[in-house]
């Protein structure tokens, strides 16, 4: 169940990061409300995952996969460029996340 909580936390993390851009410095009400709720949801579900997972594993996967999702969706939604160095970095993050999951034995 911890991995399900972590997956949900990652979705919230991506929503929080993308929502932060939409707030325009927290000057827009509804994007700001969405962003604050996404941040709270991410922290809550991450904390549930960390009841079982090691903090080093859970937090690293949360931030790593959340970063990848943010960059990919940032490219789709905000037309940000994905370059070869970014792709290589994504591969390294994914390899690290998989290795951490395997090392956690879950």
UniProtKB/TrEMBL annotation:
Enumerate the GO terms in the molecular function aspect.
transmembrane transporter activity
Q: Which Pfam families match?
A: Multi_Drug_Res
- Membrane topology value: Multi-pass membrane protein
Q: Which GO terms describe its cellular component?
A: plasma membrane
Transmembrane stretches in the record are 29-47, 59-78, 84-104
Predominant location? membrane
Q: Which UniProt keywords apply?
A: Cell membrane, Membrane, Transmembrane, Transmembrane helix, Transport
The signal peptide, as residue positions, is none
InterPro entries, per database record: EmrE-like, Small_drug/metabolite_transptr, Small_multidrug_res
Where does the source fall among the domains of life? Answer: Bacteria
Q: Where in the cell is it found?
A: Cell membrane
Q: Which family does it belong to?
A: Belongs to the drug/metabolite transporter (DMT) superfamily. Small multidrug resistance (SMR) (TC 2.A.7.1) family.
The record, for PANTHER family, names:
GUANIDINIUM EXPORTER (PTHR30561:SF0), SMR FAMILY PROTON-DEPENDENT DRUG EFFLUX TRANSPORTER SUGE (PTHR30561)
Under which name does UniProt file this protein? Multidrug efflux SMR transporter
């Amino acid at each position: 169940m911890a991995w399900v909580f972590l997956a949900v936390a990652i979705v919230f993390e991506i929503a929080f990061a993308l929502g932060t851009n939409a707030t325009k410095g927290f000057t827009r009400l509804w994007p700001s409300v969405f962003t604050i709720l996404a941040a709270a949801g991410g922290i809550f579900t991450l904390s549930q995952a960390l009841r079982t997972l090691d903090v080093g594993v859970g937090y690293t996967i949360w931030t790593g996969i959340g970063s990848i999702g943010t960059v990919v969706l940032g490219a789709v939604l905000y037309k940000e460029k994905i370059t070869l160095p970014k792709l290589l970095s994504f591969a390294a993050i994914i390899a690290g996340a998989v290795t951490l999951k395997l090392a956690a034995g879950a």
